Amino acid sequence: GQNIDQPTEMTATEGAIVQINCTYQTSGFNGLFWYQQHAGEAPTFLSYNVLDGLEEKGRFSSFLSRSKGYSYLLLKELQMKDSASYLCAVTDSNYQLIWGAGTKLIIKP
Amino acid sequence: IAGITQAPTSQILAAGRRMTLRCTQDMRHNAMYWYRQDLGLGLRLIHYSNTAGTTGKGEVPDGYSVSRANTDDFPLTLASAVPSQTSVYFCASSPDRSTGELFFGEGSRLTVL
Questions:
Q1: Cβ-contact B19, B81 below 8 angstroms
Q2: In angstroms, what separates the C-alpha of B10 from chain A's closest C-alpha?
Q3: Chain A touched by B57 (CB under 8 Å)
Q4: What is the nearest CA distance from A88 to chain B, expressed in angstroms?
Q5: How confident is the prediction along chain B (113 residues), in pLDDT tens digits per residue?
Q6: CA B63, CA B59: separation in Å to the nearest integer?
């Protein structure tokens, strides 16, 4: 079966760095996506990786290792507004998006 | 402002009633999707449409139906609501089915009693 695993919840301190991991097992691979979802709101697109390596976008970076079925989202200089759930998703060989259950990130002052 | 509009935002419904959740996008995207989101389970695909006139079943299609008469509209119908359909429903769209970057509506919170 197809599966995406990510931690249920993480806590970090304002101003610090946090890494949210995601491992996946899917039928084929056509890209990995990270979305941010604030409580009570819709998910919004954060990043896309299709090749191995690090993609940097401001305070957020996303890493992919296709051979290991592994990705992480790195958030630097954490701000209170970064408190949200972070969803990892993979497109399989049929371009179907497979979603993880999400990681709830709690930022403490 | 371009995007996806869902209605209603919130609804309480008696079991057995019929309900249609509306979704309209103005981005001229070909692909549209309906997801439900339940605590601890993440997003689950109900139905999708790769282009106007076509629809397909997702992971959890039972009890739901959709239609795609034109590019902009993608309504989701619950023919006879049951309490297990209590959830938050998100409509989403993308330029085409191969794009994993989805644009989501604000969601419809449905409670079936």
A1: yes
A2: 12
A3: no
A4: 10
A5: 669 999 999 999 999 999 999 999 999 999 999 999 998 888 999 999 999 999 999 999 999 999 999 999 999 999 999 999 999 999 999 999 888 899 999 999 999 99
A6: 12
